[in-house]
Amino acid sequence: MSKQLFSKDDALQYDRQDPLARFREEFYLQPGKIYLDGNSLGLLSKRAEKSLLQALASWRENGIDGWTEGLHPWFYAAEKVGAMTAPLLGATPSEVIATGSTTSNLHQLMATFYKPVVGKSKVLADALNFPSDIYALQSQIALHDLDPHEHLIRVESRDGLTLSEEELIGAMSDDVAIAVLPSVLYRSGQLLDMERLTAAAHEKHIIIGFDVSHSIGAIPHELARWNVDFAFWCNYKYLNGGPGAVGGLFVHHKHLPQVPGLAGWFSSNKESQFDMSHHLTAAIDAGAFQMGTPHMLSMAPLIGSLELFQEATMPALRLKSLQLTRFMMDLIESELAGMDVTIANPTLDQKRGGHVSILHEEAVRIGKALKNRDVIPDFRPPNIIRLAPMALYTSFLDVFEAVHRLKEIMVNKEYTHFEKKRSVVS
């Protein structure tokens, strides 16, 4: 796409040429609104709604027998969803399971793989990571009677937005036992080189895992080939699984079978689970990392949602995502020049996730003004607006219209009509 082509007709032409345009009809788009917050909560698809209603129908019609009967028997649903997710991660079905939440899965993986010993007890993370991951790492360190202030290394950012991979690798000292890093930074959208970081960690005999919440469904992964030890994520962002959707985790096949650090009822091998023995016979695949009973009504929408990813394919989705974010950045640079709006995310395709981040000192009020103009962004303190055009349902015309509404807000200073205070949920 040329930076000189910024007309509405250009956007319409890109939409006519879009091979994924048909998927837009699969979603419940909000009339009159441009939804650019799918990196926080993806929209409901008709397929996700259908698979949820199928789960309810199975409960209604089969009662307890829904565990083994019906279209999607509940007893095997976590493995089914895991198998559907695996291609998005470059993994085999045995390495992936749908279970828990982002934070509970991190606790499970840390309980399994964090084995501090004298001289190798530290945890490597970064200063820009999502707070919940840091809380979990701090608590896991404390459970080993170690001081989180001493044993948690957080690599700082030089600009407050991005991380240096060289500095992350430089922090992989001999006393680090495990590293937990984001695949894509939630504020700036920087995409880290997971393959490079994994190779560097393993040279120092460090177990390494990634929070891929902001990359799964937005970029292709090759976790097995990259030799990543583990990964965890939520399914309500790019995968459109619904609010509070069941999360997921990946464990590299080299670690399987593995007795989980936190065992439970569904850690069992399915063939012996109902033997009721007090001796755990753990599953030989990633299913061992489950604890409690699957939350079926929070998992069922994923069955329908993941069908769309199978049909669209990750390479095609990534290509369109890059085109949408490039178009958005080009428009911002052209239309908002001289308005103190700065693009905060990396501009190189290989360094960018699925959203565009812009900086402005009035970001919180600009975000409110955008919502008032029926453009749905999100705000991250202190001064970031994130705009996420989603490859499955955002059009190029949506991007064009959103940027032009933003321009009008800036020109007319419409944001001054709103309180400079974030909402409870932003």
Rg, please? 22 Å
Number of strands: 13
Cα distance spanning the termini: 33 Å
Tell me the strand order in the biggest sheet. Answer: 2-8-7-6-5-3-4
Class derived from helix and strand content: alpha/beta
The CATH first-level class of the largest domain comes to: Alpha Beta
What do we call the CATH homologous superfamily of the largest domain? Type I PLP-dependent aspartate aminotransferase-like (Major domain)
Q: Judging from the principal axes of the Cα atoms, what is the shape?
A: globular
Helix content: 25-40%
CATH-defined architecture of the largest domain: 3-Layer(aba) Sandwich
**Which percent range describes the beta-strand content?**
5-15%
Q: What fold name goes in the CATH topology slot of the largest domain?
A: Aspartate Aminotransferase, domain 2
Pfam families: KYNU_C (PF22580)
Subunit structure: Homodimer.
Enzyme class: hydrolase
GO molecular function, one term: kynureninase activity
What topology does this entry show?
Elements: H1 8-16, E1 34-35, H2 46-62, H3 77-89, E2 96-98, H4 102-113, E3 122-126, H5 131-143, H6 148-151, E4 152-155, H7 165-170, E5 176-182, H8 194-203, E6 207-211, H9 223-226, E7 230-233, E8 248-251, H10 296-312, H11 314-335, E9 342-343, E10 356-359, H12 363-372, E11 375-376, E12 378-380, E13 384-387, H13 396-412
Parallel strand pairs: 1-11, 3-4, 3-5, 5-6, 6-7
Antiparallel strand pairs: 2-8, 7-8, 9-10, 10-13, 12-13
Catalytic activity: 3-hydroxy-L-kynurenine + H2O = 3-hydroxyanthranilate + L-alanine + H(+); L-kynurenine + H2O = anthranilate + L-alanine + H(+)
Function: Catalyzes the cleavage of L-kynurenine (L-Kyn) and L-3-hydroxykynurenine (L-3OHKyn) into anthranilic acid (AA) and 3-hydroxyanthranilic acid (3-OHAA), respectively.
Keywords: Hydrolase, Pyridine nucleotide biosynthesis, Pyridoxal phosphate
